[in-house]
Amino acid sequence: MYIKGVLVKIRTMIVLLSPAKTLDYSQEFDVQHTAPAFLSDSAKLIKELKVKEPKDIASLMGLSDKLATLNFDRYQSWSASKTMGNDSKPALFVFQGDVYQGLQANTFNKKDITFAQKHLRILSGLYGELRPLDVIKPYRLEMGTKLPTARGKNLYEFWGTKVQENILKELKANKSNLVVNLASKEYFTVVGSLPTDVNVVSPVFKDFKNGEYKLISFYAKKARGYMSHWIIKNKVSTPEDLKNFDAEGYKYSKKLSTESEPVFLRN
Question: Which of 20, 46, 56, 69 could form a disulfide with 95 if both were Cys (CB 3.0 to 4.6 A apart)?
């Protein structure tokens, strides 16, 4: 395929995203679905959460009483679902935060969804790692939550090396060594230190404000979604390809970029 007149070979990689707090289960989907890889681990976390009262959840997660009660109810009704239902739908379409507004999954055709299923991974406090079509139940459990379990004092210790090992397994299956990190630091931390032969590229997005380019969280989140959308739509997969990203006014800055952190600026 061609991008800006340049022939690009379709290879393989893994793109990492964070999940979102905002969820939407109102839509219906005519897609094949898959089951999360770590459902038994998720069930262990839910078991820990089910015994907590709303006030405990509020304290643990810094939530209002209303949100704490909502999530208390979610934990009580949660099950390790492997099929679609009214409250069990594909992660790609359920998440609705800033990143996913930029991702615009509802515009994907079947080829796009197939590509995303192979190359896009969503890191999750409850599910560890999700493929786009993995069905999920409503939940809230951020990766930075200090939830004690038999495995340790927080979710990073709970997941240990499981997420990293799975990513390495998927890279091997795809015959790739490229990870495009579009997740937040909170979530990417669960991946741990990847082997030196894995090429991790973490794009940076900056907007012009008050006379200089700055990383503005709201815009940066959306930009991660824009880039994910662009990668999926154009089926790109090498660090060189990423430099062609130009969605929503962002342009690659050779001057400010490094090999591991390409910088994209927007006026």
Answer: 20
Which helix (H) or strand (E) element contains residue 253?
A: strand 251-253
Q: 121: helix, coil or strand?
A: strand
Identify the domain containing residue 57 by its residue range. Answer: 2-266
pLDDT digits (tens, 9 = 90+) for 91-147: 999 999 999 999 999 999 999 999 999 999 999 999 999 999 999 999 999 999 999
> Does residue 260 surpass a pLDDT of 50?
yes
CA–CA gap between residue 127 and residue 43 (Å, rounded): 9
Q: Classify 180 as helix, strand or coil.
A: strand
Model confidence pTM above 0.90: yes
Q: Any idea what the Cα angle at residue 123 is, between residues 185 and 137, rounded to 5°?
A: 135
- CA dihedral (27, 136, 61, 121) positive or negative: negative
Report the C-alpha gap between 128 and 106 in whole angstroms: 24
Give the E-state strand segments of 48-165 in sequence order.
89-90, 120-124, 128-130, 135-136
Distance CA 210, CA 217 (A): 16
- Distances from the Cα of 235 to the Cαs of 4, 168, 232, in angstroms? 13, 21, 5
Distance CA 90, CA 178 (A): 25
- What is the Cα–Cα distance from 71 to 147, expressed in whole angstroms? 15
pLDDT at 26 over 70: yes
Residue partners of 137: CB distance under 8 A and separation at least 6: 74, 77, 78, 79, 81, 87, 88
Q: How many domains does the structure of the chain reveal?
A: 1
